[in-house]
Amino acid sequence: MLIETEHLKPLPNADTDRVEIIKAVIEEIRPNLQRDGGDCQLIEIDGNKIMVKLTGACVFCKLSSATLEGIQARLVEKLGEFVRLIPVAGAAKARH
């Protein structure tokens, strides 16, 4: 499921709420990442897989896997379901 709202048909409320929760969790963590010179972008949601791109200082940070685990744990807590946070590399062509 792409996140570009202007190109999507209206989603059922449950899907819309789910996307908003995912976006909110990422926005919640972003200031901490940005303070250290990094960032996290939501790329795509495909079922229980949530693709994100780490940028800036996060790319080579030794703690990036711990950061991703923390974001994933927060997503699981907020959504009440298991999701897998998957880091992607490549062009920063965010689709949200």
What topology does this entry show?
Elements: H1 13-35, E1 38-46, E2 49-56, H2 64-79, E3 84-87
Parallel strand pairs: 2-3
Antiparallel strand pairs: 1-2
Helix pairs in contact: 1-2
Task: Note down, in words, how this protein is organized.
Helices cover about 40% and strands about 20% of the residues. The chain has about 100 residues and is of the alpha+beta class. Strands 1-2-3 form a 3-stranded mixed sheet. Strand 1 and strand 2 form a beta hairpin. The longest helix is centred in the first third of the chain and has 23 residues. The chain is globular and about 35 Å long. The N and C termini lie close together (about 10 Å). The N terminus is likely disordered. Pfam families: NifU. This is NifU family protein. Belongs to the NifU family.
Number of domains: 1
Assigned CATH class:
Alpha Beta
Total strands: the figure is 3
Give the helix proportion (percent range): 40-55%
Can you tell me the CATH superfamily? Fe-S cluster assembly (FSCA)
Mean pLDDT: 84
What is the rounded Rg?
A: 13 Å
